[in-house]
Amino acid sequence: MEFLQFISWACIVFTLGMFSTGLTDLKKMRATQSADNVQFLPFLTTCLNNLGWLYYGVLKRDGTLVLVNTIGAALQVLYIMAYCHYTKTKRRVSAQTLAAGALLGGAWVYFSVFLPGGERQLAQLGLACSVFTVTMYLSPLADLVEIVRSRSVERLSFPLTVATFLTSTSWTLYGLQLQDYYIMVPNTPGIITSLIRFFLFRRFAPDSQDVASYKLVHM
C-alpha cells in the first residue's frame, strides 16, 4: 500500500512536470506575439487524451487519474487558447478544434448513452484510451528515423525525453500495482521510445562539450 502511494505521487509529479513543458511554447508565443514554429496538434491530441483518461478515472474512482488529467486538460486548454490567439491560421486551427470537439462529443455519447454502465463500459473506454495513448507515443517515430539519417539530435529535447521516460515508467508501475492493463500497457511504448532517444543522444552527441546538439527546455 505504501509503495502504491509512492508510485501514485510519482505519477502526479512526473506527469505534471511533463505537461508543464508546454509553458515553454506559451512563453515563446507571448514573447514573439506569434505561434510560428509552435506545433498545435500536440496540444489538441494531449487534451483529448487527458479528457479520455479523466472520464476513465471518474468511472474507476481513481483519484490519481482524476487529479493528473484534470490539471493536464486545463493546461492544454490554456495552450490551445494561447495558440488560437497568436496564430495566423485561425481558420485551420478552428476547423481542427471543431473536429476534435465533434470526436469528443461522439465518444461521450457512445460511452455514456449507448453502453450500459459497469465493466463493459469501463473496459471499452480503457481500450480506447490505451489505443489513443499508444498512437501518441509512437507518432514521433518518423522523426527518430530522420534523426538517424541526419545523425543529429538537434530536434530532440533531452529534458522532455527524461520527463517522458519517468512519466511512462511511473504509470507502468502504477498500472502493474493495480493490475490494470489499460494503464500499464499503453505506457510501455513511452519507455521504449524514450530509451531509443537516450541511445540517439549518446550515439550522435557532439564531441565538444561546449556545444549542445539538442534542444533544451527553458522554463
Number of helices in the DSSP assignment = 9
- Our estimate of the beta-strand percent is under 5%
The first-to-last residue Cα distance is: 35 Å
Query: Which outline best applies?
Result: globular
Mean residue pLDDT: 87
- Rg from Cα: 18 Å
Tally of DSSP β-strands: 0
User: How would a crystallographer describe the biggest sheet?
Assistant: none
Order of helices and strands: HHHHHHHHH
Poorly predicted sequence stretches spanning 5 or more consecutive residues: 208-219
Structural class: mainly alpha
Q: Helix proportion of residues, in percent?
A: over 70%
Notes on the protein architecture:
Helix 6 (119-138) runs parallel beside helix 9 (181-204) and helix 8 (158-178) runs antiparallel to helix 9 (181-204). With 219 residues, this protein is mainly α. 79% of the residues lie in helices and 0% in strands. The chain is globular, with a radius of gyration of 18 Å. The longest helix is centred in the middle third of the chain and has 25 residues, at 90-114. It has helices spanning 2-19, 22-32, 41-60, 63-86, 90-114, 119-138, 141-150, 158-178, 181-204. It has 9 helices and no strands. The model is unreliable at 208-219 (pLDDT under 50).
What's the topology here?
Blueprint: H1 2-19, H2 22-32, H3 41-60, H4 63-86, H5 90-114, H6 119-138, H7 141-150, H8 158-178, H9 181-204
Helix pairs in contact: 1-4, 1-8, 2-4, 3-4, 3-5, 3-6, 6-9, 7-9, 8-9
What key attributes describe this structure?
disordered C terminus; 219 residues; mainly alpha
Summarize the structure.
Helix content is 79%, strand content 0%. It has 9 helices and no strands.
